[in-house]
Amino acid sequence: MNAKHIAIAALIAATGSTAFASEGSDSPVGVSTLSRAEVVAGVAQARAAGTLFVGGEGQQVTFTVAAPRDRAEVRAEARAVRSSTAHLYQGA
């Protein structure tokens, strides 16, 4: 019975590893027509212009910084939000 379980486990492991091996070849590999110096210059130019896109999935994220506020303003805003939405958190 043990040999049978070992053989089945080895078969499952071999089947699973071949499935993972074929995933890498799904996307074609492109050949660049630019030299390394041209790419570095393009990156430097985009960085200087503020248009450098850094993201692997194609989504550009922009951050905006709010004007600085003191602690009293932040606490007053939190109290106002808490009192206006208190009905949402009853029973917590």
Word description of this protein:
With 92 residues, the chain is an all-alpha fold. It has 3 helices and no strands. The protein is flat.
Order of helices and strands: HHH
Quick one: biggest sheet?
none
The whole-number mean of residue pLDDT values reads 75
The residue fraction in helices comes out at: 40-55%
Low-confidence stretches: none
Strands, count: 0
The CA-CA distance between the termini, in Å, is 54 Å
Short précis:
The protein has about 90 residues and is mostly helical. It is built from three helices and no strands.
What is the element layout, followed by pairings?
Elements: H1 2-21, H2 36-49, H3 71-84
Could you name the key traits of this structure?
92 residues; mainly alpha
